[in-house]
Amino acid sequence: MSTATLSTPRPRAAVLRTEVRLFRREPGSIFWILLFPTLLLVILGSIPSFRRSQTSLGGLRLIDTYVPVVILVAMITAGVQVMPQVLTGYRERGILRRMSTTPVRPSALLSAQMVVHGLAALVAMLLALAVGRLAFDVRLPRQPGGYLLALLLAILAALALGSVVSAVSRTTKIAGAVGSAVYFPMMFCAGVWVPVQSMPHTMGRIVELTPFGAAARALGQAAAGDWPGWSHLGVLVAWTVLLSAAASRWFRWE
To answer: Which of 84, 90, 59, 229 is nearest to 153 (CA)?
Structure first.
């Protein structure tokens, strides 16, 4: 086994540590990924009508349905808004091109970015669950295994979508514009303005075919104690595979 092969994990670990440090120095990223979703939950939970049971939601309160929504907001923000700007900035400044001449391949940077933003989304989830439970008596997911599975698939879909945004954006300005064009429709599909459960039947069925509409339904089912519908999980897997293939085909290091 060659020396280069033995030394590969160490540069990758070093890149990951560096990206974690850089992320911690970005107050904007920390706020929008980690704090904004929970702040949104607190604002919504402060509205009295959001704390009353709704017969249209099977006795649930609106605040109960919004915990999965704000978790998805954190994922969408990390994958679609923040990560593409960082990767496109690296490409724009020639960092990825220069890395290709070193033992550290550009793919190490891409994987490190996905790990950092995926972990940030997980931290945002824990914060939202804790605040929802302590401040508004939102029950913790009754089907934790299904909830975790749906969560991980949703994170993968968000990162895959962000990779596509990075692939089609030549500059950070374009990445910001494309990311914003994708961000708000995905927020709608996640149920930010209208919970997916409350949407008209036809609209709800269409939204459930999108990655975050399916994720919202899967997380809601797991929170209620049911195993997430396999159709919703299948939609997440299909979108992740499709978006990953598109990102792999279109992504350029230079």
So the answer is: 229
With beta carbons less than 8 A apart as the criterion, state whether 41 and 62 touch.
no
Amino acid at 20: V
- How many C-beta neighbours within 10 Å does residue 2 have? 7
Residue 61, φ and ψ in degrees, nearest 5: -95, 155
- pLDDT tens-digit profile of 110-127? 888 999 999 999 999 999
Q: Give pLDDT, residue 236.
A: 97
Tokens 């808004």 appear where? 81
Q: Give dist(CA 31, CA 150) in Å, integer.
A: 24
Distances in whole angstroms, Cα of residue 212 to Cα of each of 111, 131, 149, 157, 225: 22, 22, 14, 8, 20
Mean pLDDT confidence for 211-237:
94
Tell how far CA 249 is from the center of its chain.
22
Smallest Cα–Cα separation from 111: which of 246, 211, 249, 248?
A: 248
Q: Is the dihedral of CA 49, 54, 56, 60 positive or negative?
A: positive
Query: pLDDT tens digits for 2-60?
Result: 334 434 456 778 888 889 998 989 898 899 999 999 999 999 999 998 998 888 777 88
Nearest in space to 251 (alpha carbons), one of 77, 101, 119, 84: 84
